[in-house]
Write a structure and sequence with these properties.
With 226 residues, this protein is α/β, with parallel strands linked by helices. The chain has one domain: Spore Coat Polysaccharide Biosynthesis Protein SpsA, Chain A (Alpha-Beta Complex), CATH 3.90.550.10. It has eight helices and seven strands; from the N terminus they run E-H-E-H-E-H-E-H-E-H-E-H-H-E-H. It has a seven-stranded mixed beta sheet with strand order 3-2-1-4-6-5-7, with helices on both faces. Strand 1, helix 1 and strand 2 form a beta-alpha-beta unit. The mean pLDDT is 87.
Length: 226
């Protein structure tokens, strides 16, 4: 069993995936046997899957998961968690907006807790994205009484998955994970990080259809936990 499982997921990210993976490989080159990379193509219509298969051929310790159609961030993470063999698990989107260097911060801080979450100190995003993000956080607060700061990524101990069942297919999975893990009494830490601009292309999640899915899954989560 490896020490860390790092999941990288994306949809139509043929131009960005390799850059993020190479950053991770460079960061961990001094201790290659302690981690695994799980790359997930969420039903891309471009050459993303070909890029991932090439990365797998060129580098040991890489797993590739491919969806036949686009299923959403939640589905990517659930499949990644299921495939993960590491004692510690984390994830990054393939757009490059989360600095892989945050993984080292996770490792540094997780010694005396179960989950380490990152949140953004500033948001160089569009006005629409900022409004949608605040709206989602407000909904979570209204339904659950608090709104965890999980705008970036997080790292957690795999034992959490034994008692936390995840069902969301959208970004709502991150709220679901934190809420359920907190209810189970797991220990959390949070740290501030700085988001990067995406390497190229445009966001696939900042649209009304995706936001609606997030809203509906958060409401369904509240109903299930009632």
């Amino acid at each position: 069993m490896t020490g860390f499982s790092i999941i990288v997921y994306g949809y139509n990210e043929e131009k960005n995936f390799s850059s993020v993976v190479y950053e991770i490989l460079a960061m961990f080159k001094s201790f290659p046997d302690t981690y695994e990379l799980i790359l997930i193509d969420d039903g891309s219509l471009d050459e993303t899957l070909s890029v991932l298969n090439k990365l797998k051929q060129e580098n040991q310790g890489i797993k590739v998961i491919s969806h036949s159609q686009r299923n959403g961030i939640g589905a990517c993470l659930r499949d990644g968690y299921l495939a993960a063999q590491g004692e510690l698990i984390t994830f990054l989107p393939a757009d490059g907006q989360i600095d892989p260097g945050d993984i080292l911060r996770f490792i540094e801080l997780i010694d005396d807790c179960d989950v380490v979450c990152s949140y953004y100190n500033e948001k160089p995003f569009s006005l629409f994205r900022r409004i949608m993000s605040k709206s989602v956080r407000l909904l979570v607060f209204m339904l659950f009484g608090s709104s965890p700061r999980i705008e970036g990524s997080y790292m957690f101990r795999r034992k959490i998955l034994e008692g936390v069942s995840l069902t969301s297919n959208s970004f709502a999975i991150n709220f679901e994970f934190v809420i359920k893990a907190q209810e189970q009494g797991f220990r959390f830490k949070f740290f501030e990080t700085h988001p990067r601009l995406r390497l190229s292309g445009h966001s696939k999640v900042v649209n009304l259809d995706t936001i609606w899915k997030v809203f509906t899954e958060i409401v369904k989560l509240r109903i299930r936990l009632s």
